[in-house]
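Student: Hello, beginner here. Can you help me understand the protein record under this note? Any guidance would be welcome.
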Amino acid sequence: MGDIGEGFSKDKSSAPTPEDAPELPSSFSTSRQQRSFVREKEVPKRTATPLSSQERMHFSKLQGSFGARMLSKMGWEAGTGLGSERTGIVTPIESKLRPKNMGIAYKGFGEKTDQSKAEARRRGEKVSDDEDEKKPPRGKGKGKDVKREREDAWKKPKKSKLKVEHKTYEEILAEAGTEPAPSGVGIIIDATGATMREVSSLADVSGWIPSMDPTRIPEVRHNIRMISDACKTDLDGLAREAKVLEDRKKWIDREDPKVRRKVEDEAELIRRLQAVHLVVDEINLKAREVAQSDYEPTLDIFDEHIDKLLNYFGKEYERYRLDEIVVAAITPIFRRMMSAWRPSEDPSAYTGKLRRWKTALKMNDAPPETGLQVDVYGGHTVTKTPMTPYESLLWNIWLPRVRSFINNEWTPDEPQQAVKLFEAWSDVLPTFIQDNVLDQLILPKISATVSAWNPKRDKFSLHAVVFPWLPHVGLRMEEFVDAGRRKVKSLLRSWMTSEGVPKDLRPWREVFKSADWESMLLKYVIPKLGATLRDDFRVNPRNQDMAPLQQILEWANIIRPSIFGQLLETEFFPKWLDVLHIWLIQPSVNFEEVAQWYAFWKGSIPEDVRRIPAVEAGFTKGLQLINEALELGPDAPRKLPKPNHNRPPSPSEGDRKPKPQRTLPSRMQEITFKSIVEDFVASHNLLLLPAGKVHEKSRMPLFRITKTVEGKGGLLVYLLDDAVWASEGDEYRAITLEDMVLRATKAR
């Protein structure tokens, strides 16, 4: 303290220099007004400055110029600065060009011009010799030295003087984000006198005047600097630590509510899980009680517990897959129920309970994909998408019971039992189990029944076997009904007109495509109906047999009206008009009887058939013939023309020239012998296939009668003169149809 006091007492009159002014404590200015230790000096006016040779050459060039004369009139002299006090520049501003592609101060390049340096010297400023640009020495290696300097530029970083910025304690704390402590330097002891005393501020120290003399008390100054540096380091560290602590405090303040909420959620989850555990224990207890009892098994005892799980613990039910616990609890009871179940008596049993539990019993929306995987124990099929516990329950317990019922008890000719079973369980079965029941159990059995169906032997109808399953087959429709279509075609091949309309035909009309339906009727029905009208039907007013015509009229609602009208127009009305003409040309004809006969025939034809244009035209011809006979009177036997069987023009055709009546196709006019052979062959499950060859002598095409569509084996025949010709040795002889089928069946 003595040294410090001595330092303060020496040279009290010396004023501090401006360089030391920043080192004074800030408290020195708190008690009294700050003194000014620097006197203001008057700036003398600049006088004429000696000019260099280059400047004298410059001013000699300007003498006599307009600018120099104007400046001299305003008091300017060469060698003096501009302005009223001659403090401006002496020579004009000079520019200095920086080398190409060089940055500012690159490689020590001086930016100052010679003019700016000279002006600085005139103002009394010190200009360092290092600022003068050193020109490289001229010589051989000038280019190499410059190149070497450029290559080594990255190795020689330019030294720059660090600028020290002083910060107060309050500024450091402010940057750290904390409030500074109350200002004050603490206790101050005045040791300048004989005795030490405590003062409130440095201004109260007697006889003390701050000094900036750097030569005084160097040891104390050195120690103070070391202490200051150490304090600054500690203060920076504390400030950084305070900032970290402040950030952590803010983070803790943000995270604390989250943690508290998480703790509350965990506590709530624990409470809910404990409640779920109690319900699960009750379910297991009920399951054990029912499994050990001898009473009739029932699932009603689980209703309350399952409803509680779904209504109060829905999230936990999904998250922890509680459906496994439910299925495990009901599995023993469900197995006992299935063993006592009779699907034929109660096909919808237990579906109400499963439908109520449908939310609790999980099912996959998409069917599981199966793939083959081989392990060390052998090959077996595994599923890529595992079944849910409920699906596994149905697959392993319900499906075997249904499979046994369908395979052993159910017959397709009584489809309602299986249909009711499938419809009752469809909404509680996953898709892949429904497909398995259809594809593996029901449809194969129906296909076998359809293939073996015989209308003459079997009492049940074909559509009764197939049609109840149409709403359930989905995309299998074409494949499913295709066998039925073939059976209907086979039925019509062997059908005769006297048998009437087959009872299985009308329902199948909606299953066939319109073109296929008409084509089938044109091929197998129309020719036979035409043959019946042509060969079996006679118009006899005395003893009329209506049975053949009634057999034809039964097809009126099945065959397209235009085709049915052409059939009557071709086969019925020519016979009917010819008989009417013969009656009208009789000498003693009774027109009243003719009118009654005409009304009888018109009433015998159903009204919807009479509205067919071809049928209306036929009756119109008969009425015109009667009217013409009435007009001719006694001359009718000689002058009444025979009926014209061409179609007359309809009233809507006006005056257009009537066209000749359109004839029926050949397949509608008569039944060919080939079609008879085809029907006979088909009725014996054989095929008549073209062989692609001709008989050498008769040049008739050969056909092969065989069992397979490959056209191998069988019997080669050709058709000629309504007979079947088959080979016997080297020659072909006519054989009967029965012999043909017998030989084709035995042939390989």
